[in-house]
Amino acid sequence: MTSGALFIVTAPSGAGKTSLVRELVKDDDSLCISVSHTTRPRREGERDGVDYFFVDRDEFQRKLAEGAFLEHAKVYGHYYGTSHEWVRRQREQGLDVILEIDWQGAEQVRKLDPTACSIFILPPSVETLRRRLETRALDDEKTIDRRMRQAQREIAQGEKSDYRVVNDEFERALADIRAIIRSRRLRHVNADGD
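Above: the chain's sequence. Below: its structure in token form.
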């Protein structure tokens, strides 16, 4: 069995990364989303072990010290990390894994696995990004301002990605990402001689 591929999807908060990634896996049984560990509080509707593995800071720090994470980052005051073991198990089963992570984590993964394909999701404009953050009503104005400052830094880092997709029209952005994944799979299959 061929080992699954690794895809990294990054974006500034509010660019539509989570919505796009969730839609991608709906009709693709060979694609799964990595479930990260996090110290941030659970949001309404989120399930432990499905959306995230919710842990306290002490447990996160213990796992970090043990080298359990493929990547980790502190984002908006909370820690996030992707388990080496979880990703390895999925890939050994032939599943392609999407890491939905920030740019700091993406850099760590690319250093460890240069074959990972990185995709950066861009908003159509900074104004659209602010509007999306305000519309989803998850954060207060101060937090939105902080996210917007962070978005500028993240967009600059997006230049390092293998691919950049503008999410100005959801279905087109989704089709673009599917095309990238299909292309990588074909290259992966041809390289393996399968």
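The mean pLDDT is 88.
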